[in-house]
Amino acid sequence: MRCPYCNSKDNKVIDSRAADGGDSIRRRRECLKCSRRFTTREHVEQRARLVVIKKDGTRVPFERQKIQTGLEKSCYKRPIATETLQAMTDQVEEELHRKYEREVEAIVIGKTVAEHLKKIDQIAYVRFASVYKEFRDLDDFLDEVKEVLDSRQQESLKDQDTLF
């Protein structure tokens, strides 16, 4: 395992724990070269690999790291823990494997990630949607923000109804 800070392959495992209900192992590591600590996760690859059908029709292997990276970019400087993003990545991946046996369209992956992100942070959701939905101009951006505000207002009204 390479250190994400200095790229050294020399590190030691400090702590190992079961994660995701036993479906993965979370390892805390320390680099022997730069002494910085980082976390890795190991997942069993027991299911058939998904193939992603991109917008241009090409097919590429599914990579969970792309979901993780997209979430990290969308949530940059937002009060969302890394563990929350990892859990969301796990949930999205699990959902995709449950619904699709071999192939899934990239647009479906984006929509699934967006649905999960919308529940956690609306700012991060709009950031993600701006890329996923390919906003062409400011009007597209404003339309999405209005939709988020409308759904938030509807949820607020539902909450008030349950109180009375």
Describe this structure in words.
- It is built from five helices and six strands, in the order βββββααβααα.
- The chain has 164 residues and is α+β, with helices and mostly antiparallel strands.
- The chain has two domains: 1-45; 47-163.
- A three-stranded antiparallel β-sheet has the order 1-2-3, with no helix packed on it. The protein has a three-stranded mixed β-sheet with strand order 5-4-6.
Topology, pairings included?
Layout: E1 11-19, E2 24-31, E3 37-43, E4 51-53, E5 59-61, H1 64-74, H2 82-99, E6 103-105, H3 106-120, H4 122-132, H5 138-163
Parallel strand pairs: 4-6
Antiparallel strand pairs: 1-2, 2-3, 4-5
Helix pairs in contact: 1-2, 1-4, 2-3, 3-4, 4-5
Give the tally of β-strands: 6
Helix content: 40-55%
What structural category do the secondary elements indicate?
alpha+beta
User: How many H/I helices?
Assistant: 5
The quaternary state of the protein chains shown equals single chain
Distance between the termini: 56 Å
Low-confidence stretches: none
Count of all domains = 2
Provide a quick synopsis of the model.
This protein is α+β, with helices and mostly antiparallel strands. 49% of the residues lie in helices and 20% in strands. The protein contains five helices and six strands.
